[in-house]
Each structure stands twice: as C-alpha cells, then as structure tokens.
Specification:
The structure is a single chain. By secondary structure, this protein is an alpha/beta fold. It has helices at residues 19-28, 41-53, 74-84, 107-123, 137-149, 165-173, 191-203, 232-243, 247-257, and strands spanning 3-8, 31-37, 57-61, 90-99, 127-132, 156-158, 177-181, 208-210. 41% of the residues lie in helices and 17% in strands. The chain binds zinc ion. Zinc ion is lined by residues 7, 9, 37, 95, 213.
Length: 264
Amino acid sequence: MPLIDTHCHYNLEPLYGNWPTHWAQAQENGVSQSIIVGAGLSSSQKAVDIAQKEEQLYAAVGIHPERILKITDLVQSLSQLETIAQNKKVLAIGEVGLDYFHLEKNQAQKDLFIGQINLAKKLNLPLILHVRDQDETAYFETLEILEQHWHFEKAVIFHCVSGPLKYIEQALKYPNSYFGFDGNITFKNADHLRAIFQLVQKTAPQKILLETDAPYLAPVPWRGQLCEPKMIVQTAKYLLENYALDLELVYQDSLQAFDIKSSI
Ligand SMILES: [Zn+2]
C-alpha cells in the first residue's frame, strides 16, 4: 500500500544535509510521494529546489508564524514568497497560521497569516495550517480568519491537528478541509489526539491525511529521537491496527487534497 507523507521537512536540518538518503529509505518503506513544507523564505526555496530534483517530491511554501519576529517588511516578504511559489512543483501555501504556544498573541501574526491566505487564493493553491495554543484562543481565531478570508474552494489542511473538539467539529463542516495526523498520535499521553482522530474518522474519514513532520515527532517506539520520513509507516500501522484506518482511502484523498495528478 503506497503512502503519501503530506508534511515533512527534508529542507530542514538534520535531514537537509542527507535528504537523498532519507528519501531513498522512505521509498524503500513504501512512501510514494512527499510534500516538503516551508517554514520561512529560505526553507521554502530549499523545498522547491529539492522537489525539482525528484519527480515524486513536491513543495509547499510559506512563512511559519514563529518567523514573525524576523520579518521587518511584510509586503516585501510576501512578494518574495510569491516569487518562490511560481515553481510548478509548488502544491500549496504553508505552513502558515497562528502560534500562541511559543509566541505572544499579536496582530502581526494575523497579518502574516491573512497575507498568505490571500496569496494562496491568488495562486489558486491549497493552504496548510499550523495552529498551536495552550488554551483555545489561537484555534478559534484561526476559524474566524478562515471564515472571513478563505474561499474553501481549494483544500485547507489542518496540519498536525490539535485543539478543542468544538473547533474540530467546526472545521469538519468546511468544504475541502483535511486533517493531518503525525507520529505524536502514538504517544502514551495523546488521548486527546486520538479523540480528534476518532471524531474525524467517524464524521468524515475521507478527510484524514498522514504526515511525519520529520525531523519532529517520531512515533513510538522512537519518541524523542530524530523523526525520519520512513517512520510514517509506523504511524500508519498504528492507526491501521488500532482504528482500522483505510489506507487506500487516505492515499486517494491525499492525491485529491493536493491535486497531485501523477500516479506511481
Ligand atoms: Zn511542519
């Protein structure tokens, strides 16, 4: 059964220096395609550069909310991102969103997020969201921003999904919403993530995507170690064994979410 890793970072160290080996190992383990996701301008450019070298690798480009501290000229940064996004291997804008877990809540984060939503609309690309908070604020503000600014014609992917179940219920109602699950769903203390997974599986099983977020979030039994892209197999196996996840459906839906035409 082929797997698509819809969110990984061959463009970030320590994977970047050795990405061809990691990609070869992922393929040996059944990964057929992967989307390399940008977190800033230079990692977005790297994602595109890598994707141009391998037919089955694709890129998403975006400025992560944590980068807000480094941005001095938002308009200029967005126009640089737009230039990078012109490449035909770019399938989405991301990862973008709100992070009140690592950073203070502020308007600058929202402006960066909205600017990139508008870019995704302009380029007719899906959107990959990063949302984190220790309470509920970032989650519900994200929904407010989406409802105000997004058109829901293309996919909106809730990457490494977390947050209150009420937020998930609302996001499930959107057309073309998808939910990315990562290795952290295998963690012992991840009951809440498993509750989110079960809610999505029960409500809209065609909205489930699998991700590694490599080099982060290695699944059990490698928790805390470097997450390698090939480890997506372990997450898939866990969800298959515990929840009878339909991997064929996940594969087809991943192609659809990102408009991937090529088959393997
Ligand atoms: Zn990521």
